[in-house]
Amino acid sequence: MEYNKPIPVVDSDSEPFWASGLSGKLKLPHCSSCGKFHYYPRTLCPHCHLTDLSYKEVSGNGTIYSYTVQRRPAGNEFKDDVPYIVALIDLEEGPRMLSNIVGLAPEEVAIGQRVAVQFITVSDSISLPVFQVQK
Amino acid sequence: MKNNTPVIVGVADLPLENGKFAGGENVLQAQAKAALAALDDAGLKMSDVDGLLTSGVWGLNGPGILMPVTVGEYLGITPRYMDSTNIGGSVFEAQLGHASLAIQSGQCEVALIVYGSAQRSARARSFGGRPTDLNFQYDVPYGLANPVGTYALATMRYMHETGARPEDLAEVAVSARRWAQLNDAAFKRDDLTIEDVLNSPQICDPLRAADCCLVTDGAGAVIVTTSERAKDLKSQPIDVLGFGEAQASLLVSEMEDLCRLLPAEMSSRRAIEMAGVSLTDIDVMQLYDSFTITVLLTLEAIGVCKRGEAAQFVRNGRIAPGGAFPINTGGGGLSNMHPGMFGIFLIIEAVRQLRGECGSRQVDDARLALVHGTGGYLSSGATCILGRA
Ligand SMILES: [Zn+2]
């Protein structure tokens, strides 16, 4: 199946992140100096500015911090998807991610809902993490 | 000793018809006309300009490249000070600070701040088409329409935390419209009720069309010089008493607290401190209203009201004509005009208020104004304090 929506232009910061979902795991950069995860992936830790970073698996569980229902598409590629949910997810490990809530009617989404990651593979090297509400 | 306190001596904006440049001007023509009009307002000539500050989303090889050089060449001037800071709609408040510093330190004597956009004529505004590289690779693939999406996420969280209602957001839009009805130049002047706002088309929940700024053309210019030079000029000088700028996040996922507009908090504190005034001394405020939520977050960030109390604050017409707290007296980005980067028009309206030129929308004896711009995706902020001597 062809994927027609915009996909990330991967760089060496983001390559392990976008690829992690190919094996069904969510991995984020972790700083061994300050012990914190961060998102989005960078060459330096945005918390302590040191560079002792390595990718580690995270739970993929979190809660919805905020959301919006897109009634207008973000460009033509999304026009078949409206209305769709874009949300900010606070992961258990700390970082906040922007993603989609899938498999849920727009009127059922709420701040504070518990969510779990799943993946949409869009190319040989990219799997987009999205989230589903835990029932 | 020579008095080199920075003062605004000229302002102008280009008339629009149905939100478009009346003469079909392109961005360079529009900026030239606005610049000439502002110089005329000041009683200065183009050849007096030795500092040029401009910004925008047009240009060679995409936005921003060689912008002051392009404008300077077109105008036929060779400035010795230039600035092309590009931090979104707040840039002109930042550039007013930069121009003031340049004037105080003798880098230039007559600074022109100028902006133009023909976005409505060019039908250039769209939610799509952003690149998916660098930072944007983390949000464009998820279909967040920006900037409105970021502001919608902030609004949703704000309503959740504070109990603010859609009616409270609508109050901001209705107040802006009532000011616009007193401004002959404003684009949207028909009646607007809370109910109209709540029935306007949904864009990004909870924001509706009437919560969003207009899409118009627009060009404006501001002339800054020393108070010494201003003595010989015809216009009433307006002092630039304080300024500050700050940035926080580009991506909304990087914003730690969606209910706290950190750039506004930081920049306004510095501007007020520098001016040596207190918030309660301010007679009129011009606060960037890209979306209705922007006004609520800004009122709280600069300290007009406490966290979570702005929704209550704006109720019952407090910020509307006749209310106790006049803001965005020209109708703002919501009802007057919004050519992509609105910040320069906030300065122009503040100057006109301080000069007492605003006719039926004039705030009585306005002597001190606060102007605050917010740029990008709640990303940057810049504040200026302006005063009539
Ligand atoms: Zn660290």
Automatic annotation (TrEMBL), chain A:
<dbReference type="InterPro" id="IPR022002">
    <property type="entry name" value="ChsH2_Znr"/>
</dbReference>
<feature type="domain" description="ChsH2 C-terminal OB-fold">
    <location>
        <begin position="55"/>
        <end position="119"/>
    </location>
</feature>
<dbReference type="Pfam" id="PF01796">
    <property type="entry name" value="OB_ChsH2_C"/>
</dbReference>
<protein>
    <recommendedName>
        <fullName>Zn-ribbon domain-containing OB-fold protein</fullName>
    </recommendedName>
</protein>
<dbReference type="Pfam" id="PF12172">
    <property type="entry name" value="zf-ChsH2"/>
</dbReference>
<dbReference type="InterPro" id="IPR012340">
    <property type="entry name" value="NA-bd_OB-fold"/>
</dbReference>
<dbReference type="InterPro" id="IPR002878">
    <property type="entry name" value="ChsH2_C"/>
</dbReference>
<dbReference type="InterPro" id="IPR052513">
    <property type="entry name" value="Thioester_dehydratase-like"/>
</dbReference>
<feature type="domain" description="ChsH2 rubredoxin-like zinc ribbon">
    <location>
        <begin position="18"/>
        <end position="49"/>
    </location>
</feature>
Automatic annotation (TrEMBL), chain B:
<dbReference type="InterPro" id="IPR002155">
    <property type="entry name" value="Thiolase"/>
</dbReference>
<dbReference type="InterPro" id="IPR016039">
    <property type="entry name" value="Thiolase-like"/>
</dbReference>
<dbReference type="GO" id="GO:0003988">
    <property type="term" value="F:acetyl-CoA C-acyltransferase activity"/>
</dbReference>
<dbReference type="InterPro" id="IPR055140">
    <property type="entry name" value="Thiolase_C_2"/>
</dbReference>
<protein>
    <submittedName>
        <fullName>Thiolase</fullName>
    </submittedName>
</protein>
<dbReference type="Pfam" id="PF22691">
    <property type="entry name" value="Thiolase_C_1"/>
</dbReference>
<feature type="domain" description="Thiolase C-terminal">
    <location>
        <begin position="244"/>
        <end position="388"/>
    </location>
</feature>
